[in-house]
């Protein structure tokens, strides 16, 4: 009995500290008014010096590509080029891209990726030699980019001397389903808050788009890792391990808007891919070059998080059951409740976060959404656990091909939705940052 | 080599400084930011409201948007030498006044004995009490007493009795007094007013008497003050607010009456949090407080004692008992119990309770004009709530009720004094005021201060001289000593005794619980009455202190024991005397001794 008690207490305390740290980091941006203010873009001073090469990998995305390119061209910055990367086996998308290039040949170019097996890092690497700008930026074909973004990013590069600037990405369609609600909120907490902590600590897994890197830094680093399932995270880890300065900025009116995966299965696949990617990055050991033990701990912990999270989700109910139904001393029972306490605090902050999300984006969050958020929590946890287990299993079996996820353009404004409504759901590869 | 973007804006008037991760910068910059944020709350009004300059280190001026700014650099307490000095000197004075003669005055109270005995039970590993714990109060209070007295009782076990262990309360008083000073500074009171608040809180004869005693309320007040300090933290850090919630919960679990002060804490937190992070800070604090608080019912649940049931105590019954305690009448109704309690407070000091109340009223009335009043809205609200609760005609008003009001009374009294001083010195003062008028202002202030001092000093001198010199506990010591020396075989004797003397008897060799018996347990605790089927005949002695004689009216076994016993020793005289009475039974008469 004593042994059981000690064991349960040890597990509970470990879980408690884990959850507490995760919570601490998740709430980073709201810690003080000063930290919150520091997460924003500084207002541009009107000056301008850098030029941009914006990479836009597109694959079977003829429906949304044109709109995306048009919107990018509306950017207020004057010195940028758009390089659309299409596959040699994807004539429909290539046609749209060529059309856009013909309309504005000075600013839009098309690069064809001829790799047999295609993935995003290979596409990006294909385009890298063609970049003429000082800074390479990455977007996805369905991204809605704010016209002022480039000007702000330019200013951020100049005023901070950064090597990398990561802008905010936000899933918007929280009303689509119970899991998209949680998915949106995950993004909110990640880009609004946690990434800033990573930037501050000097270890950062970058996002998959709205990420800007000085071209020579990117070339020196050898571009993206074509074999990694989370090439964005990997790039961030490699650059921060090499001591490059990363700056993160989040402005709700300047985030890149995206949509959640269209079905539960595609969300599971997407999450599996990220998890597997995180595992790969962990095993590549680039993070071991980080100078301080604290940074290495943060790296280790961050890359392991999906798996710890899965574990926590399973243990908490078990723990409470033990406390209530087994005859353990009251003090031990108290300890077993600690992880639940942190979980509840996290829940409450998520509810407040949802409120803030609604406020920031002018979206109407109803009572049912809050209820969905709370009730969906345990089920989402199951999904995350499933994705984590699946990722480990796939990695063990050596399967590292890209699984396709589909999306339906729910985040786009009405004019764009007409297009995708006609097209229906297609299987297209989507890269969403971790 | 990475960092977040350093340049930021939050709006017109609140440019927030760069590099939030640089602690030293933040320290100064936050002060600026806090000062500027405070500005927004001060609309441009005609009159002196716009330049409510109540203290040192503040300046006023016109800011963007034609608003009058009140710039209040935040005090860095740990680095401010004058603050440390003032607080340190006052602390020494408080410790001297409260500590000197602490074991002799005031009279040992039954409650002190109860809590210390239960702390002793915790130390001994006997659970939460040596009798069945029945959810009378949450146990966290005496668990802390057990912690505080642990080292001294280890060094000298026989000192684990009420009078000597009062010295550990000095730690609580000291912490509370320092927290109060810090809080006063964080609520923007000038240095002298913070010192005044601390002196009122620690040196008022009423405080001296009550804070010397081993009451849960004193410990709970310390926690609540800590919670207020954290709520008004100049960092406006989410986790400081979270910690404030935890401290408040610990306060409530120490003494549940602290519950009524929580709204005042919330008000303070609201005022001192930033608009952009407020909703996270406040919900975080409330969640923390609620979750920690829930551990108490959880504890009852785990022990299977949450709801009433056959043959066991329950949290529900405990709460029901506390809520249904017979009322002590309307506080202003001469002749009611509550009135008596009020008079007992006013006997020790009138300045703090009545002056504090006046201060609270003044601050509430001037809420619109005075920055000080707005900063002190939380403490003023606490005074108002506590007054309202005390005014309930049907409520039960215990003597220690005033303890939880003391720090807030001190704060609002000092705040009121600061407001008046400001009004006298600066109201309608032009930029080029004549020297003559300035002299008039200072003379008026000196007159006011002088009057107050003349009124207060003699009262306080008398009250504190008694506290420093009187010996109210000689009868208790004599009784304890008699019981230790004159009873032939303490380990086999059964004695009814009040809680205050109980530990003395235990150290003298009496069996805790069934040998040395808390007198009312002889009637109220089935586990005790079971062992005395013959009622009073199964007892040997009654140590009849005033408490025992008073409560015996409602306790048949105790009443019988008093009736069937002879006084064998009497200490002290009159109402306060302590009698040691030996039970007279037929058997005892024939053998002439104890069993």
- Distance between the amino and carboxyl termini of chain B: 83 Å
Q: What amount of the residues of chain A lies in strands? A: 5-15%
Structural class of chain A: alpha/beta
Q: Could you report the average pLDDT of chain A, rounded to the nearest whole number?
A: 87
Draw up the topology in text.
The complex is a heterodimer of chains A (434) and B (595).
Chain A: H1 2-26, H2 33-38, E1 52-57, H3 62-73, E2 80-87, H4 91-103, E3 108-113, H5 120-127, E4 135-138, H6 149-160, E5 164-166, E6 169-171, H7 178-201, E7 211-214, H8 215-220, H9 231-241, E8 246-248, E9 256-258, H10 264-284, H11 293-325, H12 330-361, H13 367-396, E10 405-407, H14 414-423, E11 426-428
Parallel strand pairs in A: 1-2, 1-4, 2-3, 5-8, 6-9
Antiparallel strand pairs in A: 4-7, 5-7, 10-11
Helix pairs in contact in A: 1-11, 1-12, 3-4, 7-13, 10-11, 10-13, 11-12, 11-13, 12-13
Chain B: H1 23-40, E1 59-63, E2 67-71, H2 81-99, H3 110-124, H4 140-155, H5 162-165, H6 169-186, H7 191-203, H8 205-212, H9 216-231, H10 238-254, H11 262-272, H12 278-302, H13 315-323, H14 337-348, H15 351-365, H16 371-375, H17 377-390, H18 406-426, H19 435-469, H20 474-485, E3 495-497, H21 499-507, E4 516-518, H22 521-524, H23 526-529, E5 541-544, H24 546-551, H25 556-563, E6 565-571, E7 578-583, H26 586-591
Parallel strand pairs in B: 3-4, 3-5
Antiparallel strand pairs in B: 1-2, 5-7, 6-7
Helix pairs in contact in B: 2-6, 2-7, 2-8, 3-4, 3-21, 6-7, 6-9, 7-8, 7-18, 8-19, 9-10, 9-11, 10-12, 11-17, 15-17, 15-18, 17-18, 18-19
Describe the structure.
The complex is a heterodimer of chains A (434) and B (595). Chain A is α/β, with parallel strands linked by helices and 434 residues long. Chain A folds into two domains: 2-27 and 294-401; 38-289, Spore Coat Polysaccharide Biosynthesis Protein SpsA, Chain A, CATH 3.90.550.10. Helix content of chain A is 56%, strand content 11%. Chain A is globular and about 75 Å long. The relative contact order of chain A is 0.15. Mean pLDDT of chain B is 85; it is low at 1-71. In chain B, strand 1 (59-63) and strand 2 form a beta hairpin. Chain B folds into three domains: 23-73, no CATH class; 79-469, no CATH class; 474-591. In chain B, the strands form two sheets. In chain B, strands 4-3-5-7-6 form a five-stranded mixed sheet. A two-stranded antiparallel sheet of chain B has the order 1-2. Chain B contains 26 helices and seven strands. In chain B, 57% of the residues lie in helices and 6% in strands.
